Each structure stands twice: as structure tokens, then as C-alpha cells.
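Worked example

This section walks through a single chain of length 338. The input is the sequence exactly as stored; nothing has been trimmed or padded.
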Amino acid sequence: MATPLKRSALTLLAAALAGSALFSSVAQAEGKISIAQQFGIGYLILDVVRDQQLIEKHGKAQGLNIEVDWNSISGATAMNEALLTGSLDVVSAGVPPMLTVWDRTKGKQNVKAIAALGSMPNYLLTNNPNIKTLKDFSDKDRIAVPAAGVGFQSRTLQIETARLFGDAQYKKFDDISVSLPHPDATAALIAGGSEINSHFSSPPFQYQALQNPNVHKVLSSYDVLGGQATFNVLYTTEKFHDENPKTYKAFYDALAEAEKIIKADKPAAAKAYIRVEQSKLPLALVEQIVNDPEIDFTVVPQRTFIYAEKLQELGVLKNKAGSWKDYFFEEAHGGAGS
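Given that input, the structure is written out below as C-alpha cells.
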């Protein structure tokens, strides 16, 4: 039978072991990061980070060996589910889907953006020669988008529709929008003859489609947003951000270095994209995209607040952001974002 002194000693030992286990658990969390990206040239910064092992490099600069788990997922809905269930630490999607999960988790998981992945236009394309502007679309037309009604392309279309037809009509073109992956939509647009005669596309697919003489551009997302604007962003939960400061810093620093690498040597960046994505696109086409003056591979957010304002005005978002800094973690606040 244990004496009171022995019981006290055992209690202290148990507490110490419990504390050690807790510390060990936290320590194990530091040094691991799981990241998911979608497909396309919009993720070039991540491709360079992966190709050059920049997260591992910046982790070692802090005395930390970081284990990186890379994943590929199509669609913002699947991304958000994986993030909120804890299956992934960092996910990527367009600005509107990120704002949606920021809005819904405010006061709970508090999801916020880490950094932008670059500014690039998305084109609304058609093979219908009678369509010159958005007002020329009819009930007979069909617009392919990756996620009808909720994705980047649909939300951008809704904002422009509200401007042209009034806020009450912002969903006017949802009825003729069809969810279809970019590769399938591009093939349908080029081939012609199907009900899909239009496609709100993105790089590199819009470049491929415009090589066909029967396809023309109706609208650019830059037209809607008033200039160069962020397409995709990376985001995570407050829990991951706060509990993994060294890992988070290494990741952010890796993204910033990847931006510099791309801008310093765009041909090399194009090769990295083909290498990491195992892309079958011609190198010349990838280089053309990377060198397009409309595109800026930067971690600094550009014109994201337009989405936050307009989607809140339309009732898509419940919470009103005071500025872009409300939905980006503080590490991103140093740049001239918007």
C-alpha cells in the first residue's frame, strides 16, 4: 500500500508524464504540413515550392525538419470539407470559395487566407458568333463552369450580372450554367455541336480554346474587377496557424521565395510546372502563359476586397469585412494588398 508521500510522488510523476505527453503532441504537430492544390498554371507558386523543396529549406533554417504531404483535389467543396474535418492543414481555391468558408467559420474554426497564389484573368468564352456581350446570352445557351452557382467563375459572373441587371437578378445566368471540369468544357467548346456553347474558363485552358478560330472572348474577370486581381488563394484554420508557428512561417517564407524564383527565371518556372504537374502541354505554351503581362505570380492579394464587399451586399456572405486584412492572417498584412 502506497504511503501519502509515495502517492504524492506518484501523482507528481503522472502529472509530469501527462505534461510531457501533451508537449510531445504539440511538438509532433510542429514539423508536419499537409497541403492540397487543384490543377492548372494558377498553382505555379506551389509547384515551384514543391520542386525546390522550399518548405523543408525554410524549416531547416529554424532548426526544424518539416514533413510535407502534397495532395491534389478538384473542387473547392471537397477542399473545404477536408480542411474542416482536419484531414488537411492547408487548401487552395478561388477567392469567393475562401470567403464563403471564412464567413461560415467566423467565431468557430476561424478560417483565413494565408497568401495569394497570383493574379490572372479568367475568360468567358463562346463559340456562338451571335454573342458579343453578356446581354446576348439567352435561355438556349449553356455556360460551363467548374462549380455552378458557387465557384470563382460563377461568383464573378453573378457580380457582373448584378451590375448590368440589378442586385435582384444576380443569379440570372445560374439557370444556364452547367458544372463541368475545365478540360471537358474546353473540349466541348472547341468541338462544337453540343449544348455547351460557352465556358467561363481559366489558364491554361482559355489559351488552348482561343487557338480555335470559332471561339472568342466575351468577358474577362479583370473587366468585372477593374484590373489585375487574385484568382486563387491558400487558406487554413486558426488552430493550425496558432499551434504551428515555425511550420507556418516556413511555409509562408517558401511561398515568398517561390514568387521571387518565378520572376527571376520564367522559363525555368515553366519547366518546373511541366515537371511537377507531369503536364503534356507544350513548353512554348506554358512559357507564353507565364510571360503573359496580364498574369502576376505574387503572394500579395489584389482586389480580393471587391468580392468581400459585393458578395456581402448580395447576401451571399453574412459577415461584413472591414478590409482584406480581416480574412487574411497577419503574416500577409505587410504587403500592399487589397
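What to look for: Strands lie at 32-37, 67-72, 91-94, 112-116, 123-126, 143-145, 177-179, 198-200, 216-220, 232-236.
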